[in-house]
Each structure stands twice: as structure tokens, then as C-alpha cells.
Automatic annotation (TrEMBL):
Family of the protein in this entry: Belongs to the acetyltransferase family. OlsB subfamily.
Organism phylogeny: Bacteria, Pseudomonadati, Pseudomonadota, Alphaproteobacteria, Hyphomicrobiales
Root EC class: transferase
Protein name: L-ornithine N(alpha)-acyltransferase
Documented EC number(s): 2.3.2.30
Matches recorded under SUPFAM superfamilies: Acyl-CoA N-acyltransferases (Nat) (SSF55729)
Annotated function: Catalyzes the first step in the biosynthesis of ornithine lipids, which are phosphorus-free membrane lipids. Catalyzes the 3-hydroxyacyl-acyl carrier protein-dependent acylation of ornithine to form lyso-ornithine lipid (LOL).
Keywords linked to the UniProt accession: Acyltransferase, Lipid biosynthesis, Lipid metabolism, Transferase
Length: 309
């Protein structure tokens, strides 16, 4: 939920002068950003806690930079994404959307740094009202979500993106705490629909025929909730007949995050998009809050005692 535009070697080295300016978009607050952090002050109290782990919203630009460093470590150092020169210099994954998003953090109080407890998990949250006031949703770079939003003008959308968890913390506890924080944020702000991109590793559609076809035949959104991949970037997901799909085998090929969304009740958009910078094939996730399985609302809800602040 994922990347900046891929830069080819020709574009990268064909223009040496002037040297590129590696501007940190989060270092210069946009109009009203300080007020935004002040408004968040009441929300940054713990959203949930499990043992030494705490989930909360970022309350400063320094918090956002720590989330960006985690993303860089996971996406570029642990993963196979191709970092831009600017990202390598800053050792952070960042883009212009960071300055207008809220950032959900999981921190571990058992492992502290001079800046506070270590950030071990993060999700980026973009509210519809904020997206409308700026450049729209990040997801709109790959999918025509504008038409989807227009069909549901009476509903409030929230975009989820840039999710990652540090390797030693990729377990049920951390993921549950992230989802508890998301649900608390959704309830507090009365959102009706969650959306964003989810990634399958790899950029070869033929190698991904089984998971893509499974999602197309068994998880595609009904027309009222469907959004199309941008025509110029669209990859057909219908690569195998429905009858030929071994559903259990297909499920085993899906990333845990995608399976988690499906268990919650999410739908998938029409068509996939290749993200060359991150080496992934992206699908659109659409999750109406009304479609969330009731047992998960009880499990992650703000009244869940094991996650209580």
C-alpha cells in the first residue's frame, strides 16, 4: 500500500546536473500541520497495549521519521525494493503523503532508544477529508478509486497503507495490536469503508496466476464496491478458470496480510498493477465496515480487555 514512481537507470544517470534536491517532505510542515499534531494530542494516549507493546498515533514529525526508518529497513534492507538515491541518503522511506497522513505506531517499551521506545510496527492512515483537500488518495495512482468514492458519497473512506512490522515482531500479538489501533481509529472517526493496496511478491503475472485467479473468482468485489485498475497499468487477474483452481493451494500462496483482509470480509478490485520499484504485484482491497465479521469486531474492538489501554 506502496511506492513512488519507478525511476529507470537512463532517467537516473542521464541528468547529472543540477544535483537532485533530496527534500524531506515531513521536515517542512504544511499549513496547519502543527495544529494537526495539537489536535492529535488527545488521541496519542495509548490506543491499546499488550505486555511491553503499545499502539498509538504519531504525535510529532520525529515520530513520523522513526516510522519512515522502520519502513526503509523492512522494505529496502530486508526486502528487495529498489531505493531511490534520496531514500538511501536519508535511510528513510518517505513521500509527500507522509505529511498529511496519520501514522499508527506499535512501540516496544522493553527496547528503548534515545528517542523513546523502539518503533516496531506501523500503518499509514489517510482520511478522505484530508485526501480531498490535497492530492487525493495514494491508491488512486494505481486504481480508479474516485469512481468508487463517488458511488458512495454518503460514506466516509479511510485509506490504509505502508504497513510493515520489524522481523522479530511479525507475530500474532503485534498484528492484533495494530488492528486494535486501526479499529479504535475507525470507531473514533466514524469511518465506513477501508481501502488500500495489498501486495503479492513478484512481478511476473504468469507466476502469480494461481493467487490472482483465486482472488478474481472468489474475492472480487460486487459491482457496487468494485474499482478498476488504471487501464494503462492493468494486469488481468483472470488467468485460470474457476473450476481449475485448488482453493486450499491458492490460499497458501497468499501473503498473511491479504488472507487477513479476506477473513475480515474484504473484497478485491478488478485488475492488478505491477509495482516495479517494490518488486510486487498490487491488488486493491476494499473493506466496508458493515461487512466486517462480527466476531472480529468483538476480537479487535475497543472493548476488548486484552488490548485495553
Amino acid at each position: 500500500m506502496q511506492s513512488q514512481t519507478f525511476t529507470s537507470h537512463r532517467r537516473l544517470f542521464g541528468r547529472i546536473w543540477p544535483m537532485p534536491s533530496f527534500v524531506d517532505e515531513t521536515a517542512r510542515p504544511r499549513r496547519g500541520e502543527n495544529n494537526r499534531f495539537k489536535a492529535l494530542a488527545g488521541e496519542t494516549a495509548t490506543l491499546g497495549r499488550l505486555g511491553t507493546l503499545e499502539v498509538r498515533l504519531a504525535s510529532s514529525a520525529a515520530d513520523i521519521r522513526r516510522a519512515q526508518r522502520l519502513r526503509y529497513r523492512v522494505f529496502f534492507e530486508e526486502g528487495e525494493a529498489s531505493a531511490t538515491i534520496g531514500a538511501r541518503i536519508l535511510q528513510r522511506d518517505s513521500d509527500a503523503f507522509d505529511a498529511i497522513c496519520d501514522h499508527l505506531l506499535v512501540v516496544d517499551h522493553a527496547h528503548r532508544t534515545p528517542l523513546g521506545p523502539s518503533v516496531v510496527g506501523t500503518y499509514r492512515l489517510l482520511r478522505q477529508d484530508v485526501a480531498d483537500a490535497h492530492d487525493g488518495f495514494y491508491t488512486a495512482n494505481e486504481f480508479d478509486v474516485g469512481a468508487l468514492v463517488s458511488r458512495h458519497r454518503h460514506l466516509k473512506f479511510l485509506e490504509l497503507g505502508r504497513s510493515c512490522v520489524l522481523l522479530p515482531y511479525r507475530n500474532k500479538r503485534t498484528v492484533e495490536l495494530l488492528w486494535h489501533g486501526i479499529w479504535a481509529y475507525v470507531v473514533r472517526n466514524k469511518f465506513d469503508v477501508l481501502l488500500g493496496c495489498a501486495s503479492l511478491d513478484g512481478i511476473d503475472p504468469y507466476a502469480l496466476s494461481l493467487p490472482l485467479s483465486f482472488l478474481h473468482h472468489f474475492a472480487q468485489a460486487p459491482e457496487i464496491w468494485r474499482a478498476q485498475a488504471k487501464p494503462e497499468r492493468r494486469i488481468d487477474m483472470n488467468r485460470m478458470s474457476r473450476a481449475s483452481i485448488d482453493q486450499r493451494a491458492a490460499l497458501r500462496t497468499l501473503p498473511p496480510l491479504v488472507k487477513g483482509y479476506l477473513r475480515l470480509g474484504a473484497f478485491v478490485g478488478d485488475g492488478a498493477v505491477i509495482d516495479y520499484q517494490f518488486g510486487t504485484t498490487d491488488v486493491l482491497i476494499v473493506l466496508p465496515v458493515s461487512a466486517i465479521n462480527a466476531r472480529y469486531i468483538e476480537h479487535f474492538g475497543v472493548e476488548a480487555d486484552r488490548h485495553a489501554a
